[in-house]
Amino acid sequence: xxxxxxxxFTYPDGTRALDGITMEVRAGASTGIVGANGAGKSTLVSHLxxxxxxxxxxxxxxxxxxxxxxxxxIRKRVxxxxxxxxxxxxxxxxxxDVLFGxxxxxxxxxxxxxxxxxxxxxxxxxxxxxKPPSHLSQGQKRFAALAAVLVMEPSILVMDEPxxxxxxxNRRKLIGLVDRLPFTRVTVSHDLDFIWETCSQxxxxxxxxxxxxxxxxxxxxxxxxxxxNGLELPLRLQG
Length: 239
Known about the structure:
This protein is α/β, with parallel strands linked by helices.
C-alpha cells in the first residue's frame, strides 16, 4: 500500500533529514516509526500524504507515485493527524472543522454531518460541537483533529505523536479507538508503550536512515538495539 524506495530529503539549510529510506507498509498493517529527536521521523511522514514530495527516490501510495501533480490524489487516500492539533483546527466551531475536509472533497453535506456526529459522539465531543477549537483542552483538540481526518474515510491513517499532551485516561481511550480502526496505520511516537500496544511492526530510525525494522514487540524488547539508537525500553519492560 505504501512503497518507499531510496527516499532522500535535504532542507534548504543543508540538513540531510532523510538519507536513502526504503520501506514498505502493507495493506492492513499497523506500523510504528520510532527514533530519537532529529532522526527524521516527521520528515518521513510528511512524505506519506504529499506534504513533501521526494527530492530523491520514490514514494508510492496505492500504486500512485508521489509528485506535485498527484499530491491531492494521495491526500484523499492518506489522512495525516498532525503532531500539533492547533495546526489542524482553524474554523470557527469544532463541527465546522470536522466538516471542512469532506466539503473540500465535494461530498454531500448531509452525509458528512451524519458521519461527523457519529465520530464526535464516539469521542465524547458532540456537546462541544459549537465551541471554537481554541476553547478546547489539549486532549479534546487531539481527538477533534483525529475526527477531522477520520470523517474523510482515508484508506491509510498517519499519526504524528498522537499521545503528546494526553493524560493517562485519554491515552487509554485513544488506544482503544485506534485498535478498532479498520485502516492501514502508520504511527510516529516517542511513546514506545503506545507503539507496543497499537503496532504490529516497527521501524527504528537514526540520522535519516532505517536502523532496524521488524515485529514491534521483538524490536522494542531489544535493550541493546534501542539504546544504540538513542531510545530506552518501553516503561512496561523496565524493572
